[in-house]
Design a protein that fits this description.
Elements lengths: L1 H23 L3 H31 L22 E3 L6 H7 L11 H17 L3 H21 L4 H19 L2 E5 L6 E5 H14 L7 H10 L1
Parallel strand pairs: 1-3
Antiparallel strand pairs: 2-3
Helix pairs in contact: 4-5
């Protein structure tokens, strides 16, 4: 498919060269050099932008608009997590930085029961004379799966860290919320969050009103 596309583009380019030669006659080589020079400048700018993005992703240079350094977040692109607490370990923060869509492998022992139940229900829909044969074959395959397929040790360790983190979030009274203008996760102490809310209300002269009294007054009016 790619070869056919390349051949098609080459034919188009060849026809354009013929049209240009007939239109400009003897001046066509000069016009062609000017066109190539203009395209060269445009392509250099595009390649420079691409190389700059690659350098930023590799961490070899800092982006022009970096994130705030007070949260100890990565300086490349948008941070995935902002930790405003001092209760998490570096290992827990590194796992959270993998993002909420990070696919962690589940232990085969937890999945094998579902496989057995679904296989048995599928075999029951077959004719009775074939059920014993397929049950024997399915049992062999399930046994092979349990013996050969083992959980990735890295994912197993990450699962333990995440389970411990879930307990700490509940016991240490940590709030997990989404940032205002991007998909970054923010971890903050509940007390610190409430202090920020009260400070915002105070700075903006926001006061509470008694809803029932205001409704009664409006009805009387």
């Amino acid at each position: 498919m790619l070869y056919k596309r390349k051949q098609h583009f080459n034919q188009q380019l060849y026809r354009m060269h013929l049209e240009g030669a007939t239109m400009f006659e003897g001046m066509w080589p000069h016009a062609l050099s000017n066109i190539e020079a203009g395209h060269g400048i445009i392509m250099e700018l595009k390649y420079k932008n691409l190389h700059d993005k690659i350098k930023i992703l590799e961490g070899r240079s800092k982006p022009k608009r970096g994130t705030s350094e007070q949260h100890d977040t990565p300086t490349t692109g948008q941070p995935r997590i902002i930790n405003l607490t001092k209760k998490l370990t570096k290992e827990q923060i590194n796992i959270l930085n993998l993002g909420p869509q990070y696919a962690m492998e589940i232990s085969p022992k937890k999945c094998i029961n579902n496989i057995i139940i679904e296989t048995e229900s599928a075999i029951r829909n077959l004719e009775p004379k074939w059920q014993n044969i397929y049950t024997f074959q399915a049992s062999k395959l399930i046994k092979m799966i349990t013996e050969k397929h083992k959980q990735n040790p890295l994912h197993k360790h990450q699962k333990k860290v995440i389970d411990k983190l879930k307990k700490e979030v509940n016991t240490e009274d940590i709030i997990v919320m989404k940032a205002d203008k991007n998909k970054t996760m923010v971890l903050i102490d509940r007390k610190q969050c409430m202090d920020k809310v009260h400070e915002f209300l105070k700075d903006n002269d926001i006061s509470t009103i008694k809803l029932l009294n205001s409704i009664k007054k409006s009805r009387k009016q």
